[in-house]
Design a protein that fits this description.
- The chain has one helix and no strands.
- By secondary structure, the protein is mostly helical.
- The longest helix has about 35 residues, at about 1-35.
- The mean pLDDT is about 80.
Length: about 60
């Protein structure tokens, strides 16, 4: 039984490492896009971005 628990922990550590690698790859890709196209090129869901837009009444 102890062997099964160790295998489960190893799988969990592998999943965490893969998730960490995916996060790094995603951050790198987003940074490259922002560098090439500007800071407003990508917006993350749930992020609070407000842009002032000039308007006039009609």
């Amino acid at each position: 039984m102890a062997g099964k628990k160790s295998a489960k922990k190893d799988t969990t550590l592998t999943e965490i490492t893969n998730a960490s690698g995916k996060d790094q790859a995603l951050n790198l890709a987003v940074d490259q896009i922002k560098k090439q196209f500007g800071a407003g090129a990508i917006m993350q869901l749930g992020a609070d971005h407000k842009i002032d837009v000039e308007t006039f009444s009609s």
